[in-house]
Amino acid sequence: MRRAVLYSDGASSGNPGESGIGVVLTFGKRVFEISEYIGIATNNVAEYRALLRGLERARLLRADAVDAFLDSELLVRQINGTYRVKDEKLKELWESAKTIACSFKYFSISHIPRELNQQADRLAKKAIKGARHE
C-alpha cells in the first residue's frame, strides 16, 4: 500500500484574520512542505483548508492510504463524526474533506498535541508573515 503521513495546521492572525496553511506530507522517502497564504479567514477555515490541501497532494501522488495528524481537536472530531458541523462554511469544507478522505483505500485522522505539530504550524505562520512583507 502506498501510504502518506500528513501533518497539517492552519493559523490566523485574528479570528477572522490573515491566515495561512501549513502541510508536511511524507510519502515514501520524500517529504513535501506546503506553506500558503489564504487571505482573511477564521482559524477553523484555515485548519480545514490545510487538511484539504494535504489530502489533495496525497491524491496527486496516488497514495492509497493516509494517516493525518492535526492539533485541532474540533476538526478531528468533526471529521470522525463525534461532533456535528453546524457552520455552513465549515460544512462545505467538511464535505470536501470527507469526499477526498473516502477516495483513499485507508484513511485515519488523529488529534495530536500542538508540540508534535510544530513543523506544520511553522509553515502556516510563515505564510502569513510572508504575505505581510509583500
Instruction: Give the oligomer, counting copies of the same chain as homo and different chains as hetero.
Output: single chain
Q: Percent helix among the residues?
A: 40-55%
Task: Give the neighbour order of strands across the main sheet.
Answer: 3-2-1-4-5
Through-space gap between termini: 42 Å
Number of helices: 4
Question: What form results from the Cα inertia axes?
Answer: globular
User: Which range does the strand content fall in?
Assistant: 35-45%
Order of helices and strands: EEEHEHHEH
Number of strands: 5
What does the largest sheet look like? Answer: 5 strands, mixed
- The structure class reads alpha/beta
Contiguous uncertain segments of 5+ residues: none
Protein model, in words:
The chain has 134 residues and is an alpha/beta fold. It is built from four helices and five strands. Strands 3-2-1-4-5 form a five-stranded mixed sheet. Helix 1 (43-60) runs parallel beside helix 3. It is globular and about 40 Å long. The termini are far apart.
Which labels suit this protein?
single chain, alpha/beta, 134 residues, five-stranded mixed sheet
